[in-house]
Write a structure and sequence with these properties.
By secondary structure, the protein is mostly beta strands. The chain has helices spanning about 5-10, 40-45, and strands at about 1-5, 20-25, 45, 55-60, 65, 70-75, 80, 85-95, 100-115, 120-125, 130-135. The chain starts with a strand and ends with a strand.
Length: about 140
């Protein structure tokens, strides 16, 4: 998991709309660059269709909790069933604040993921949360 350069500042300033966080799937042509500051720098390689909406799938119940000197972002797992064809192939996903069109986090997959027609494309977050961070 990688942070984009502006992510911590956006959260610290209260500028992230957790009610409108989404996951965008990206293909193998996308190369993570921490300096990417806008959704347009990511969306050219977006994977969508066959049930996975352009602009991403919503992270329901997203919330931030403070834990000691840090914080945790958590939310519901995502499951989208492919319909009319495959979802993917996706080599990574990017969590975005759809309100501000800012990419926040990049998660690379160990190998490309695809969901065949009629099967779910699942994103299961770690039990400890989507992401945690601490102050230094």
């Amino acid at each position: 998991m990688d942070f984009f350069n502006h992510t911590r500042k956006l959260f610290a300033a209260g500028e992230v709309n957790t009610a409108n966080l989404k996951v965008i799937l990206v293909n193998a042509s996308y190369t993570f660059a921490a300096a990417n500051a806008t959704l347009t720098e990511v969306s050219a390689n977006e994977v969508s269709g066959n049930g996975w909406a352009a602009g991403g799938a919503a992270i329901a119940s997203a919330s931030i909790t403070v834990e000691g000197a840090g914080a945790k972002l958590n939310g519901d797992d995502i499951s989208v069933t492919a319909s009319g064809g495959d979802i993917g192939s996706a080599s990574a996903m990017v969590v975005v604040d759809a309100t501000s069109s800012k990419p926040l986090f990049h998660f690379g997959f160990a190998s490309a993921k695809t969901a065949g027609d009629g099967t779910p494309f699942n994103i299961n977050w770690d039990a400890s949360g989507i992401v945690t961070w601490t102050s230094v």
